[in-house]
Amino acid sequence: MNDASAARPPLLAVHELSVRFLMPGGRHVAAVNGVSFELAAGECLALVGESGCGKSVLASALLGLLPGNARTRGTALLGPDDRIDLLGAEETTLARTVRGRRAGLIPQSPAAHLTPVRTVRSQLEETVRELRDTRRGALRAAAEAAAARAAFPADHLDRYPHQLSGGLAQRAATALALVADAPLLIADEPTTGLDRDLVDRTVDELRRHTDEGHGLLVITHDLAAAARMADRVAVMYAGRIVEVATAADFFGAAGPRHPYARGLLDALPERAFAPIPGLPPELDALPEGCAFAARCDRATDICTTLPALTGGVACHHASEAVDA
Amino acid sequence: MLELEHITAGYVRGEPVVRELSLTVADGEAVGLLGPSGCGKSTLAKVAALLHRPFAGTVRLAGEPVRGFRYRAPRAQRTRIGVVFQQPRLAADPRLALRDLIAEPARATGRGQELAERAAALATEVGLGPELLGRRPHEVSDGQLQRACLARALLLRPSLLICDEMTAMLDASTTAALVAVVEDYRRENGAALLAVGHDRVLLRRWCDRVLDFPAVPATA
Ligand code: SF4
Question: Which segments does the entry list as coiled coil (chain B) (predicted)?
Answer without folding.
Answer: none
